[in-house]
Amino acid sequence: MVKRILAVVAAITVLFTMMPQEGVVAEAAKKPVSTSKAASGSAIATSGSAIANSGSSIDARPGKKKHKKKKKKAVRKQPKKTVYLTFDDGPGSKVTPKLLKVLKKNNVKATFFIVGSQAKGQKKLLKQIAKDGHTLAIHTYTHDYKKIYSSKKAYLADFHKTEKLIKDYTGVQPKYFRFPGGGNNHYMSTRLRNSILKELHKEGYKEMDWNCGTSDAAAKYYSASQLIKYGETSHWGSDPIVLLQHDANSKYHTPDVTAALIRYYKKKGYKFSGLNNYTGPEMCFKRK
Ligand SMILES: [Zn+2]
């Protein structure tokens, strides 16, 4: 009998140890997001078990000695903290080349969520992004909310136009995409979102929202130092950090802000990577 009770307790303990990762993500995501336009109250949900290296708080749980030993081992194996710099709405013919220089100088790889209409005619620039080792991802062709979110068909037609352009220009098959306005925008119903996701998952795509941003898309003008401050402090949820910025031509602060943020996060022990090397689950804003 005692043995049986012990077995049940052990089973519950194991279950408990496995569960918190999702809990950690959900709980952390409840934090208010004050700096990002599309993050208006959004929470991050991950479609897999949890973000790859998000389990640190498990160690705070009281547990038996046996478990503590195992946890220590798991902590040692965790990858270095990573920042995924992401740039939407480009390429901007004036901003992106400067940004590429900053990234190259610092030996940092990033991800570009391309707007097809901006990339059209910019074959050289797009090829340069790929050649420098950055990740090319899709952010639709027109970025016209009313048009793309009018139906699944409209969204996918727009989406595939950018896919084709990237492939034609660079030979790269993108793997990641980001909804204009993020996955929790007011233009797209949950039903529409799910039907688009279903199709894009079939095609092998992963959605990637963000959990940190400089607020460079806010209606209000922010100085470079304000943008840097937001980029340093707005992270919510678990690591890794997926940091949103924009490289359209109107976002002329982006290269300098990026240089400052690279310095800041390097000092804090982070490494940088493009999403091509990301192995965790999708990062999607939770729908209300
Ligand atoms: Zn956008």
Q: What coarse outline follows from CA principal-axis ratios?
A: globular
Radius of gyration: 20 Å
Q: Compute the average pLDDT.
A: 81
Low-confidence stretches: 5-43, 45-68
Q: How many individual helices?
A: 11
Could you please describe the fold and organization of this structure?
The longest helix has 19 residues, at 152-170. The radius of gyration is 20 Å and the shape is globular. It starts with a helix and ends with a strand. It has helices at residues 2-18, 20-29, 65-77, 95-105, 116-119, 123-131, 145-148, 152-170, 190-202, 224-233, 254-267; strands at residues 43-46, 82-90, 111-114, 135-138, 176-177, 206-207, 212-213, 241-246, 271-272, 283-286. Helix 10 (224-233) links the parallel strand 7 and strand 8 (241-246). Strands 2, 3, 4, 7, 8 and 9 form a 6-stranded parallel β-sheet that branches. It has a single domain (82-286), classed as TIM Barrel (Alpha-Beta Barrel), CATH 3.20.20. With 288 residues, the protein is of the alpha/beta class. The protein is built from 11 helices and 10 strands. The structure holds zinc ion (ZN).
Question: Descriptors for this entry?
Answer:
single chain, alpha/beta, six-stranded parallel β-sheet, two-stranded antiparallel sheet, 43% helix, globular, binds zinc ion
Condensed summary:
The chain is 43% helix and 14% strand. It is α/β, with parallel strands linked by helices and 288 residues long.
